[in-house]
Write a structure and sequence with these properties.
The chain has 348 residues and is an alpha+beta fold. The chain contains 13 helices and nine strands. The structure holds 3,4-dihydroxyphenylalanine. 3,4-dihydroxyphenylalanine binds next to strand 8 and strand 9.
Length: 348
């Protein structure tokens, strides 16, 4: 026997003492006046540092022959005490339920539902319409390198288009993408024609905020490449989309423009549905809202990604999601989207 181990005689003492503990416990449970009391007794005896639990640690000091005996006693006492606690708890709960009056006519608690931000809703709708037209939805990184954001889009260093888009540059030659057009390049590099894709996402420009500008905004890029696509396909696609989103009365107009990666290029406008073309703050009195640019993919871009410009033609476009959401929901200032004022957001 190891020094410090208890003899069997000592174990008998222990068992007797456990009986005493049980009596004290039963007395205390009997005197409980409510659930709180019961819980206090439970903690006192049965919690990790409780009177009974503490005795389990004595097991290690008992001789191996006597250990099963004491162990059995402790376990049976623990289940007896737990049983008593449960019985007392049930008793008090029953009493409480008998006294408590439940008024079933009281109104329930109002659940606060989360909702989608108007930009997310607009993006969902745009994706849905183009998916039904056979376009895939692609993604690209928001932190781009110079090659994809500019170079591959035919915007070399020193090109005035780089100043046109005041960019947020990061260390190491990275830039927060100023447009979703780099996704066109990434997709063409990794897939062969025919291509029909859209790429929704966030873009960044150093714009001073006003009613129609904000340094962060969303675009949806579109690209189709096949053997004989024409400008008519571009117009048809954009116009089918606009009528689907806004209804058959929506009018679309294309104006000649210039983008380094499309030839010919255009900008396109949607008629202002806020004022029905009469002129308001949102359309700056013109009756039209500038949505973004479009055009036929420049053969130089095809060459860079390894497509044969003799064989393939393509059309591409960008669209400003905030502009579309403003039209759709009759919002006259882009800044509302980013202020997170609940009075605004909860209307969506
Ligand atoms: N990326 C252009 C911009 O942000 C918009 C654009 C113009 C996209 C022409 C295109 C395009 O795909 O073909 O201003």
């Amino acid at each position: 026997m190891n020094p410090g181990q208890m003899t069997e005689f000592a174990v008998d003492d222990q068992i007797e003492e456990l009986q005493g503990l049980k009596q004290e416990f039963l007395e205390e449970v009997k005197n409980c006046a409510d659930l709180k009391d019961v819980d206090r007794v439970r903690t006192k005896y049965l919690s990790k540092k409780g009177l009974l639990q503490k005795r389990f640690s004595l097991l290690g000091q008992v001789s191996p022959d006597a250990r099963p005996l004491l162990g059995k006693e402790l376990n049976s006492l623990r289940s007896e005490l737990s049983h008593q606690i449960q019985a007392a708890t049930d008793r008090f709960q029953k009493v409480r339920m008998q006294h408590e009056k439940i008024d079933l006519t009281l109104p329930g608690f109002q659940q606060k539902w989360g909702r989608k931000h108007p930009i997310t809703k607009t993006l969902d709708e745009i994706k849905d319409i183009f998916s039904r037209m056979g376009f895939t939805v692609e993604e690209g990184p928001e932190i781009e390198n110079d090659y994809y954001n500019f170079e591959a889009l035919n915007i070399p260093e020193g090109h005035p288009a780089r100043e046109m888009q005041d960019s947020f540059y990061l260390a190491g030659g990275w830039v927060l993408r100023t447009q979703t057009s780099p996704v066109q390049i990434r997709v063409m590099e990794s897939q062969s024609p025919p291509i029909r894709m859209i790429a929704p996402g966030r873009c960044y420009r150093k714009d001073t905020p006003d009613a129609t500008h904000f340094p962060v905004f969303h675009q949806v890029e579109g690209l189709a490449v096949d053997t004989d696509l024409t400008f008519a396909d571009l117009k048809g696609t954009i116009s089918a989309f606009a009528k689907r989103l806004f209804g058959p009365d929506m009018r679309i107009r294309f104006r000649p423009s210039y983008f380094p990666f499309t030839e010919p290029s255009a900008e396109y406008d949607f008629s202002c549905i806020i004022c029905k073309g009469k002129g308001c703050k949102a359309c700056k009195g013109s009756g039209w809202l500038d949505i973004a640019g479009a055009g036929m993919v420049d053969p130089e871009v095809f060459k860079d990604v390894g497509y044969d410009p003799e064989k393939y033609t393509g059309f591409a476009w960008g669209m400003g999601v905030e502009r579309i959401a403003m039209l759709k929901y009759g919002i006259s200032d882009i800044r509302y989207f980013y202020e997170n004022d609940l009075r605004f957001i909860e209307q969506s």
